[in-house]
Amino acid sequence: MTTKPLLLKNGRIIDPANNIDQQGDILIINNQIARKGKSGTLSCPDNGRIVDLNGKWIVPGLIDMHVHLREPGEEYKETIASGTQAAAAGGFTAVACMPNTNPVNDCQTVTSFILAKAEKEGSARVYPVGAISKSSSGTELAEFGEMKEAGVVAVSDDGRPVANSQLMRRALEYSSNHNLLVISHSEEMSLSQNGAMNDGILSTRLGLRGIPRVAEEIMVYRDLALAEYVGRPVHIAHMSTRESVDLVRRAKAKGCKVSAETAPHYFSLSEEAIGLYDTKAKMNPPLRTHDDMLAIRDGLRDGTIDAIATDHAPHSVMEKDVEFDQAANGIIGLETAVPLTLALVNKNILTPSRMIELLSVNPARILRVEGGTLSEGKIADITVIDPEKKFVYSKEGIVSKSKNSPFLNWELTGKAVLTILGGKITFSDLEI
Amino acid sequence: METQYRFQKKHILGIEDLSPEDISFILDAADSFKEISQRSIKKVPTLRGKTVIHLFFEPSTRTRLSFEIAAKRMSADTFNISASTSSAQKGETLVDTARNLTSMNPDIIVIRHSSSGSPHLLAKHIGASVINAGDGTHEHPSQALLDMLTVRENKGQLKDLKIAIIGDIIHSRVAHSNIIGFTKMGAHVHVSGPATLIPPGIEKMGATVCHKVEEAIEDADVVMALRIQKERQFDPLFPSLREYAICFGVNDTRIQSAKPDAIIMHPGPINRGVEMTCEVADGKRSVIMDQVTNGVAVRMALLYLIMGGEDR
Hints:
Chain A is of the alpha/beta class.
């Protein structure tokens, strides 16, 4: 399909993969970045459109390496269509979707279904992540080879962590045959089961069963140790505690092949956000203490944490407007990641370049997928961010099918205003 | 000019929300209501025309009966819904139950539920006043109030008393409400029991943690034992009931180090021979039955006060 040429003019081009942060223009022809140059140096072909982006950032399309699209199985919460629309509205051009659908994505049939749907109805690239074990039941390995052939980019135990250390070891070993990344949802279930929030004084006060921080840290350590032992890379998902960050920091210092992500809620909120039983602040791992939140920010700043992924987890009111201990875990995140990360830039914790590394360059590198760059000749997956734009994140404005967010009614600063996927506009808040 | 104190709570969700003035005011009101239960005709018209619904999602004998008697002695119309008869069995959510009840215009809902925070959820979705009759492992405010009333009657005050609470603190909403309440009133709460049953951060709620039961009981004015709540335990927290009784049970030997006039309390139901021996439970220092009597008075006071305290 051909689209009209598009000239993005006078924007601040932030392209960490090419070490660029300067004013400039980008010309998109067909689905590619045709030219990139200093402001005013590029001209647009006669049939093209010109967008003036003065005051806005032009960055490589954002990639969220951890989302739940709920299809197949829970289409009332989200679908591949609605989830990728939410992604586009949040500035994402690609998402990696976790395997805990119904049925579980543990075979090529489900993987192919997801990819076919995404091809037909998607507003973003969809990278399926396969299950580590059949049905995610933690007993036998799923068929990595077949899933890889069908298109998975990684395998994960997200949602149903692998308890058996031998199985995790085998998964790490066997992943080498298929060149698949193993993503660890680090949770020692015997410590966390039936827990509803972080274990501590607040859980005591609220009378809620706690999930101790060590439930995460023990498994971060186990999976780092196993990966080092078998000499394979591992990616640690949604880290939430200070010690988890330290464990990864030490493993990296030793030269281990480890990468790690956190989610915006872990650097924006602490457990206090639960207030009096607000289920919108319930997720797994749970919100931790203020000190953990600061440690996560440090990890993002110093490079210990490689990626910001939202763990976008849509749930309907049926799962959320219930007793706290019975409420489902998870919050939506695609449409708030940009302003929440920008808040760290405005606090001088992250540079704009570092922000784009975390949200685009590194996820592309870790998942080994296209994107993460604004090099000439590359696919035109581009996000335009207005760093000054203020908006109230209201229920009515949410694109996702579900509205479960602790950031509802917050006044946020900074927003994706134009999302371009392969040269095609998937979301626009601009007059074009 | 002194400002006149007024009780202004719409709901009774926890001791946490009550000020020391609120607590004293409730206890004073309860004191004055005790007399009604001594009469031959135990009924006053105070809450005539008011509708009280008892919504019990967990088994209860004492608390439920106590609330019901309190409401009936105040002439309210009372209705009972228990988990086995409610739509919860058919999968109705608590929020839907709340909406349906609201449509029938009750004045007060008394709720007991196994999930912490469920009274707060109910209060958010309902026009009526909500009284928490025990939510999960969170709070049981009316029990703490009746405990404070019982101690105040026996000791003349709450300030500066040493209160020993022994046993399953982590699963006990009674312990939580009592720690908050007694501490607010200036008493010193000491807790002891198996370390696996002491919740994290309990010191920050005002309690002193003692590793030996004897340390908690020494010179105590009040010794309260809590029931071992087998139904709320997901994993083995101590080796056996036998060892529990030996190491942590409140028995005659252990209470000797308490003050000579110390009183013995238990919120019931008692596992006799486990957390407390029969000799102690039935001994002359035991005020366990006074607690039950005071329960009715405290609940009458709560119903009266949240209805605005008029027409007394």
